[in-house]
Structures are given as C-alpha cells and as structure tokens.
Amino acid sequence: WLNVTGGFSSSTATNSYFSGIIMDVTEQKQNDLRRSKFIGMVSHELKTPLTALKAYVQMLNNWAKKQKDNFTIGALSKVDKQVKKMLNMINSLLNLSGAEAGKIHLKKEEFRLDVLINEVVEETLFITSTHHIVTSPCDSVTINADREKIEQVLVNLLSNAAKYSDKTAEIEIGCTVRGDNVEVSVRDQGLGIAPADIQKLFLPHYRVESKETEKIAGFGIGLYLCAEIINRHHGKIWAESEPGKGSTFKFTLPVG
Ligand code: ADP
Fold first, then answer.
1. Which residue from 124, 132, 151, 167 puts its CA 20 to 30 A from 98's CA?
2. Residue 165 Cβ < 6 Å to ligand 1
3. Which positions ≥6 away from 137 have C-beta within 8 Å?
4. Is 204 in the pocket of ligand 1 (CB under 6 A)?
5. CA pair distance 113, 184, nearest whole angstrom
C-alpha cells in the first residue's frame, strides 16, 4: 500500500504505473498463499508417518522394559527424542501456514493449565536433557482454550530458553492468577535480548543477528506463532530482558 500511495504522490504518476504496482502486490500475495499451502501440505504429509513412528517406538519401549533390555531402552529413548523434536518442528510449520492464511482454528476445551505446564516441563527436560527447569509453585487454574496450541506456546518458550542459554543454567517457569487472567512466565539466565530487538521478536522470520545467535539454528517463526496463538485467545505476550543477564517471556490468558 505504501508503494501505491507513493505512485500517486508524485503528481506525474500515470494509470499504467499505478496498475503495474497493484499487479505486483496481487502476484506477491498469491505466491505467498501458494507457498503457505505447500508448506501446510508437506507438513501434514510428514506428520502422519512420524506419529505412527512415535507409537511404534512406544510399543517397542514397553516390550524392551518387559525384557529388561537396557541397551534397547537407551537406544529407543534417543529415537523418541529426535521424533519429538521433528514433530515439534512440523507442528510449528503447520501452524505457520495456518496463521499466514489467516486461519488459526481453535479447538477449545476446559483443562488445568498447571497440569499442562508440568507435562510440558517433563517433556522438555527429556528433550533438552542437560537443563535444569524449575517450576515455581503454580496456582491451580482451569482455562478454556486450545490445549494443543497452548502446549505449542509453552514448548516454544521453554525450548527457546534452553536454546539461548548455557547448558547448565536454570530455567524457571511459573503461573499466577491475577484477577480474571492467569500469567505464565518463563525465565532464563541466557544471552538476553537488546531493547531494539525486543520490539521485533514476535514478527515472522525475525532473528536477532549476533555472533552468539548465528551459531544457533532456527527459522524465526516460533515467537510469531506464540503471539498469533495468544492473541487469538485474547491474551497478551511480551518479553523482558537485559543483554547478558537473561530473559523472561510472559503471557496472559483469560481464566475460566
Ligand atoms: P528461532 O528461535 O527459531 O530463531 P523464534 O521466533 O522462537 O525463532 O525467536 C526469534 C528470535 O528471538 C531468536 O532468533 C532469538 O534471537 C530471539 N530469542 C527468542 N527467545 C530467546 C531467549 N529466551 N533468549 C534470547 N533470545 C531469544
């Protein structure tokens, strides 16, 4: 739209110049939609065999436990970890294509947020293994929300806290009820984020450019998705940080 206005403001603009810009924008939008649809289809196709793989790993694990076969149990735990990582990435891509097409469908249900937090912490401890995650006392609280998507937000925030911190540093997660809302916070003692970057973290594909972050893999879509999901639930999400001292990501959701 800025381009279009620019065309008009130069008083010599002709109709053909004007229509040329409109076509560019439309074509760009169609390409974005096609790309988004393609990502959605591929991720969906990948999710099915991976989900089956996860189930077989679990089945084999049960069998190995009965046999008390520690070698197989150890190997399966490593496979399970990688499968879970891939499923997280695929879920992010699926959500991205949905968000870009302007449709995040919420399947709302009532559930205990504090229970979900404990489950996600256990899972993340398993996947990132070397980090100490501490849960500060969580208020017991029931919310009406899309459980899978809120789980995705928690997984994203916790894995970022792990990704952008030292291997042994502590990560703390807590939830507190404040009036009609519950506030969840994930605090790390990692790299921290400069004030100029904090404003842009939740934009799609935004990654902080620094010597430290360039060694850490990522697509820059996790926080964008967190923001889309929390906004769709009428909540708020933000970050507080000091470079070198760590970051705290917080979000709120309506209670009940
Ligand atoms: P990704 O981690 O895949 O790059 P995200 O959207 O999750 O994408 O995060 C965007 C950027 O925000 C990251 O590239 C990183 O620079 C910064 N960031 C996110 N979480 C943290 C954190 N806990 N500590 C420091 N920087 C972070």
1. 124
2. no
3. 174
4. no
5. 9
Exposed/middle/buried for residue 54 (C-beta within 10 Å: 0-12, 13-18, 19+):
middle
The full length of the chain comes to: 256
Question: With a 6 A CB cut-off, is 220 part of the ligand 1 pocket?
Answer: yes
Largest Cα–Cα separation, the chain: 82
Task: Give every CB contact of residue 241 below 8 A, 6+ residues apart in sequence.
Answer: 192, 193, 198, 247, 248
Task: Round to whole Å and give the CA distance between 153 and 229.
Answer: 8
Q: Is the ipTM of this complex over 0.90?
A: yes
Which ligand 1 atom lies nearest to the CA of residue 220? Answer: 8
- Among protein residues, the one whose CA lies closest to atom 18 of ligand 1: 160
Q: What distance in Å separates the CA atoms of residue 86 and residue 106, rounded to the nearest whole number?
A: 23
Q: What is the DSSP letter of 104?
A: -
Instruction: Judge whether 205 and 100 are in contact, CB under 8 Å.
Output: no
| pTM (predicted TM-score) | 0.80
What's the burial of 165, exposed, middle or buried (CB within 10 Å: 0-12/13-18/19+)? buried
- Tell me, what's the pLDDT at 97? 79
Residue 16 has pLDDT above 60, yes or no: no
pLDDT tens column, 177-230: 999 999 999 999 999 999 999 989 999 889 998 888 888 888 888 999 999 999
d(CA 49, CA 46): 6
Q: Which residues contact 109 (CB under 8 A, 6 or more apart)?
A: 144, 145, 146, 147
